[in-house]
Amino acid sequence: MEKIREFIGSHKKIVVPVIAAAVLLLAGGFVLAAAALTGVDDGSSEQTAQFVKTEDGETSARADQSEKNTTSADQSEKKKKDMRQAEEENADVPDGNTADKNDQEQTDRETEQSSETANVSGSTAKSSTGSKSSGGSQNTNKSGSASQSDNAHTHKWADHTAKKQVWVSKMVTVDDYETKTISGARFYTMSGDNTYVANGPTYWFENGFTQADLKAIISTGLKNADSNGLYNGVYYGNYQNVTKTEQVKVGSHQEDQGHYETQTYVDYQYCTVCGQKK
To answer: For residue 226, is pLDDT > 60?
Structure first.
């Protein structure tokens, strides 16, 4: 019964109409069965009277009719049982409907409370969202206003300077020299104690002066020497070999003899208002 009640409670919209239709059908069947039974009783009396007067073949027909009557009585009894069962089920239905009604009322109350809670939560969420949106809009407006305030000006550009070392070129021609050893002949003179000292004229083999030139000088000095063997105070009978070194130009080259200067230059410009560079 509990399962039947649960089934009816969960499907009451379908079960109740079905049960009502079944009850109506059973009631109609009961009426029809009662009418049939009345007709059968009358017919059975007449048929029994007739079958008593008949011969063997008629007796057989009466037995068949008796079997039919018995079958109709069984069907009538079955219908009565079905009607009693239906009445019992109908007697249980109001209780199930009452329980279903109570459950439905409880469900409606819970649904209503849930709806009210949802409405309150939705209103709070909307209010919170509206406040946040308003705050966000205010912040955005403030940021936008600040940005517009920063951008709403005419750039005033100023030069930023820096210093660097710059080479100032100066090309000049430089002579190339090398050290050269030059040989020569130094003649003697006579000192106060009648000794010869090598401090006379010196002839260097340079600038085209050769050994032949030296021999000619010696020859002239000897030919014209006095009684002391001197010519113009110089003794040309002998000479001292001497050397000297000097820088001799052998060529030239171009050389950059420039110098570094410190120069100031503009490396970039900046806005004196917002600091933007370009």
So the answer is: yes
Report the alpha-carbon distance of residue 108 to residue 120 in Å, rounded: 18
List the structure tokens of 136: 């966000």
Smallest Cα–Cα separation from 240: which of 193, 205, 213, 200? Answer: 200
| Residues 47, 41: Cα–Cα separation, whole Å | 10
CB burial class (10 A; 0-12, 13-18, 19+) of residue 65? middle
Task: Pick the closest to residue 221 from 206, 203, 242 (CA basis).
Answer: 203
What pLDDT shows up at residue 126? 46
pLDDT at 24 over 80: yes
Q: What is the largest CA-CA distance in the chain?
A: 230
Q: What is the enclosing helix (H) or strand (E) of 187?
A: strand 171-190
pTM metric for this prediction = 0.32
Phi, psi dihedrals of residue 269, rounded to the nearest 5°: -115, 150
Instruction: Provide the mean pLDDT of the chain.
Output: 74
Residue written as tokens 């110089």?
234
Residue 252 CB neighbour total at 10 angstroms:
11
C-alpha span between 25 and 90 (Å, rounded) = 14
Mention every residue, 6+ apart, whose C-beta is less than 8 A from residue 256.
Answer: 169, 170, 171, 172
Helices (H) and strands (E) in the chain, counts: 4, 6
First to last CA, the chain: 94
pLDDT digits (tens, 9 = 90+) for 40-63: 455 444 444 343 344 444 444 444
pLDDT of residue 127: 46
**How far, CA to CA in Å, does 76 sit from each of 10, 70, 130?**
34, 10, 77
Q: Which amino acid is residue 85, in one-letter code?
A: Q
